[in-house]
Amino acid sequence: MYKLWATIQKDARILIRDKVGLILMFGMPIVLVLVVTSIQNSTFELVNKNKIPLLVCNRDTGNISLDLIEAIDKIGMFKLEQVSSDQSEKLITDRMHTKDALLAIVIPANFSSKISDRAKKMAGKALSTFGLEGDTITTTTASVDPLTLYYHPILQESHRHSIQGALYSALQLVESKQVLKTLYFSIVEKQLPDTLEKEMLNNKFDINEITITINGSRSVPNASQHNVPAWTIFAMFFVVISLGGSIVREKLSGSFIRLKSLPTNYYVALLSKQITYLAVTLLQAAVIFGIGVWLFPYIGLPVLNLPADISGLFFVSLICGWCAVSYAMCIGVFAQTQEQANGFGAVSIVILAAIGGLMVPSFAMPESFKTVMKLSPLHWCLEAYYGLFLEGGKLKDVFMNIIPLFIITVLLQLLTLLGLKMKKLI
Amino acid sequence: MNPLAINIENLGFSYPGQENMFFSHLNLKIAAGERFGLFGPNGAGKTTLIKLMTGLLSFHKGSIQISGNEIKKQNRSVKKLFGFIPQDFSFYEELTPAENLEFFGAWSGLTKQEIRKRTTELLDMLGLADVRNKQVHKFSSGMKRRVNLAIGVIHKPEILFLDEPTVGVDVQTRYAIINYLKELNKNGTTLIYTSHQLSEAEGLCEKIALMDEGKIIVHDDLDKLLSEYRQEGLEGLFLKLTSKEYRNV
């Protein structure tokens, strides 16, 4: 037992004195989690809270285009700026190049009359199905010139789609209003009263958003809930740089020759490294979660809500840490040089993180990747953490994610021992 | 004759992938308490033989006994009997001498109290007491050699294997190390030494073996061999028995 304790002390001392290793293991993940959460949070706020600047060039002279502008404004997503109707396309796009606006919409000259014609046709069709005949039935309808939407390439596809959806709904509202007005006039031969118009068109149906959780809580996950667990896992697996490198250094240095000549099995050294670095991974998790809970609110980021099952969180962190340490040892045993261990270790972690769903959500992955994804230990770590952080689950609820993680860990341990035997290191 | 510290009989060994045996029927006996030198040109087999005696390599045929214990059968208990000082610095440069001794002492099977006592003794004896808490990477080559030596003898081994223990050090450090080794030998430690520093070896070793191409060419008292081959020093004897040609190994 004293041998193990002396070895743990030795490993801990070497670790503490390795300033670069400490920065990589603690500094880098902290910066990463702060940066990524801030960016994702600002993206979330851009879409949900901030208004996207939108230039409106209205070449139409009718009232319907004004209704459309009002409807777009009411969506609440955009900060409208009307530009003169004779503004050329080049002037509009030039302003967008300077990022005055990310979007611009051009309403064509005959927009109101075309929409009005279309509404009359629709109303006429509706009346004929009721067995009535309106004046509008004979109206010939020309197709409506499309609205032109300019967007800055900085806008991601997902944003563009949500913007398009919002604009379609505004357009739909204006067109429906016109059809309704025409129908009313055809039947009652009076203008639609303002009060009725407002009541019919503004009586929007609310959507009540409810997050499905295991514990029945109704808290809405924020950017911190998504990012902190993901980047904590990334940090844990990044011990490969320090631990893998330490094993390679020991293998290549004279100290390994001396260790082999002493009456102690190298398993003690392996056990010590696992205990030391497992403590490091748990400390990483504690530091990053602590930052999420206590620092984030002070720097304007959403607070990280820890799961109710703290012992479950500890156990999941423990098994994730053990898997990370096992992976690092395996790399350290098979790498021939420290450069190999660092290079392969770092790149492989980024790849495993990408296919494991840390960078792109697993539900958004192509089908072909969903099988590969299951081979990444980082995927199972993330699933287990999300079960606790996002779904409010307990340890028993994430057990099915822990089992594959445990199997991968045992396989990595066996591979490490096999590597040591093959290289006659034990 | 003293009891045998080392008894090698009919040793057969080859490196993986090698068709011919590197050692075939090699025999060597070293009595307890001797100051024994193993010499030969590069590739002669000195380091391989030391690695076999210290259990770093395993052999195919024959037997190696350390103080009467078969190394293959009692690997763990035999390893407690000897100390090994490799040519490379074999410690952790990030640690201090005291921390290195604490770790390697524990791996040598000593208790915490024994380690504490021996650490103070050794650091005093080897002139490292005032730097006991400084990290070794800040040390000169000579100081590192002394740390290397201290680690190898922390558990007071019966037999001490030394592979080039003074390479790259100044005259003062070499003198101090050789004197310390003689002192250890006076207290009963068998020294098994190999080096290319033949003048240094002459002052230390009483008995020598010369190796070449995996074979022991001669093995006897140094004085006896010098007079038998009419040579004034070990270097002359070495060149006479192993030729003056380059060895490309």
Summarize this structure as a short list of keywords or feature phrases.
heterodimer; A: 426 residues; mainly alpha; four-stranded mixed beta sheet; B: 249 residues; Rossmann fold; six-stranded mixed beta sheet; four-stranded antiparallel beta sheet; 9 helices; 10 strands; globular
Residue share in helix of chain A = 55-70%
Number of continuous helical runs of chain B? 9
From N to C, what is the helix and strand string of chain A?
Answer: HHEHEHEHEHHHHHHHHHHH
Summing up helix and strand content along with how strands pair, one would put the structural category of chain A as: mainly alpha
Largest interface: A-B, 23 and 32 residues
Biggest beta sheet attributes of chain B = 6 strands, mixed
Rg of chain B, Å, rounded: 18 Å
CATH topology of the domain at 1-81 and 197-249 in chain B: Rossmann fold
Radius of gyration of chain A: 31 Å
Largest sheet of chain A: 4 strands, mixed
Overall structural class of chain B, as computed from helix and strand content, comes to alpha/beta
What is the CATH C-level name of the domain at 1-81 and 197-249 in chain B? Alpha Beta
CATH architecture of the domain at 1-81 and 197-249 in chain B: 3-Layer(aba) Sandwich
Query: What percentage of amino acids of chain B are in beta strands?
Result: 15-25%
Let me know the average pLDDT of chain B.
87
Tertiary shape of chain B: globular
Number of domains of chain A: 2
Characterize the quaternary organization of these chains.
heterodimer
